[in-house]
Amino acid sequence: MDPMEHIDIQYDSSVSLMMEAEKRGHRIYYFEPRDIYTQNHELLGCARKISIPARKTGFRVLSTERVYLKNLDVLFIRKDPPFDLSYLYLMQILTLIEKDVFVINSAHGIERANEKLYILEFPRWIPPTTVTNDPLRIEEFQKKIKSDIIIKPLDQKGGAGIKLLPFRLSNSRQALNRMTRHGTKWVMVQKFIKASRTKGDKRILLLNGNVLGQFRRIPVRGEFRANLSLGGMEAKATLTNRERKMVRAIRPKLIRDGLYFVGIDIVDGYLIEINVTSPAGLTVLEALDGKRLEPKVIDFAESRVLH
């Protein structure tokens, strides 16, 4: 995970998972990326053994120990993006223990499933989309679809760096040069779905390919991004028939790639993102529906170890 001091302990879904595991008598070890290293053929970590008796008490560090990661039962990867080279190297290192330890989500899976690009595996369910670093190709794409477009960096989270480019903007080339860093930065470009301004988007949490829960995120007035970190408001939601079919369609590949606990984002029936690094929403669903869903996640992790 990220450093403890950066964690919003009142709302973080990872904290919910740790508290549930501790309640069942499991030992919890907390690693930051800088704590993990290899020595010869072994993967080790300088871990803090922790306790979280209650959210209001925060983290309690019980001890600091050197841990051979192959001796763990389960390793949760819950490091937030940006997904940079350091993140990539961390995933490549963690693949060394996947034959001995149940890793959720799989380091192999996270390595190949960029949270923006992974939707390209499911073309039936996505809006008109192109990925390029060429401003001219973005202009051609926009002329072809005759629509406002959304431009997204490939390595960020929480709506960071996402821009709306209106159709027939007079200085679009200047804006595109800036967003692609004059043709050196890859971006994802999608048709802007107008319903997102009023309806927002829908987050669906999946566990082993099955729906765990869902909620709607509605943007504040004047904002097209519905991310909670940008002031979006959460609301109860139900699934449409199209969304149920979408979940069934993407389930086999998610499981094959070891992506067991993910959050998919949908706008007006279109799949726009698949969150695999540290999907959030457990505390939101508990606040909306009064249901604690982290027991199901820990049940799943336990079952994989036991069987």
Automatic annotation (TrEMBL):
Record-listed E.C. numbers: 6.3.2.3
Pathway: Sulfur metabolism; glutathione biosynthesis; glutathione from L-cysteine and L-glutamate: step 2/2
Annotated ranges, domain ATP-grasp: 116-302
Domain of life according to the entry: Bacteria
Single GO MF annotation: glutathione synthase activity
Catalytic activity: gamma-L-glutamyl-L-cysteine + glycine + ATP = glutathione + ADP + phosphate + H(+)
NCBIfam families: PRK05246.1
Entry similarity comment: Belongs to the prokaryotic GSH synthase family.
Protein's recorded name: Glutathione synthetase
Species this protein is from: Candidatus Danuiimicrobium aquiferis
Source organism phylogeny: Bacteria, Pseudomonadati, Candidatus Omnitrophota, Candidatus Danuiimicrobium
